[in-house]
């Protein structure tokens, strides 16, 4: 059977009108459990402040001030330790040099000067006037054992000091001479005074001579 297109369209419209009149088919819901009580979650209340303006009250949210942490306590500063007081050490007063720097003398060099002299400086050999033998007198006293006697000649003078002064100032002390002999001239000055050793001998020469004479014990 052939259905004309206008008739088919009219039929579809009729069916649609019928369904619309009847309403949508309701979907069945399962029966509620009588043992459970329905409850509704209440919304979380928000703190609000009510501001009254005239006759109308309006609700405004409360501005929450941020919590400010209390300032930490400033640590008490520890005072610096006291500055150490400088300790002053007293500088010892240097001792004056001894009158006879024997340690500076060269006994070997002094022996050569005693035996040979220094012709270039006009210094004659000491041995020409002072013997090294016991009891032998030439012009001046013998130097035998002089290191032992020298410290006993002048009070307050040790052997080195006495020997140095005898070379530089021979008239300050005149050694006792045996009977019939003299060690001085007609004016009472030492016979060695004319040699002027204080002008002819250097400091080194004197130190060397004293160092050598101190070996004649």
| Main beta-sheet strand count, sense and barrel state | 2 strands, antiparallel
Query: Per CATH, which architecture of the domain at 102-213?
Result: Orthogonal Bundle
Helix and strand element order: HEEHHHHH
As a percent range, the share of strand residues is: 5-15%
How many helices does DSSP assign?
Answer: 6
Describe the structure.
The radius of gyration is 69 Å and the shape is rod-shaped. Helices cover 26% and strands 6% of the residues. Helix 2 (107-116) crosses helix 6 and helix 4 packs across helix 6 (203-213). It has a domain at 102-213: Cytochrome c-like domain (Cytochrome Bc1 Complex, Chain D, domain 2, Orthogonal Bundle), CATH 1.10.760. It has a two-stranded antiparallel ribbon. The chain has helices at 5-22, 107-116, 146-149, 159-168, 197-200, 203-213; strands at 48-53, 56-61. Mean pLDDT is 74; it is low at 49-59 and 81-103.
Q: Topology, pairings included?
A:
Layout: H1 5-22, E1 48-53, E2 56-61, H2 107-116, H3 146-149, H4 159-168, H5 197-200, H6 203-213
Antiparallel strand pairs: 1-2
Helix pairs in contact: 2-6, 4-6
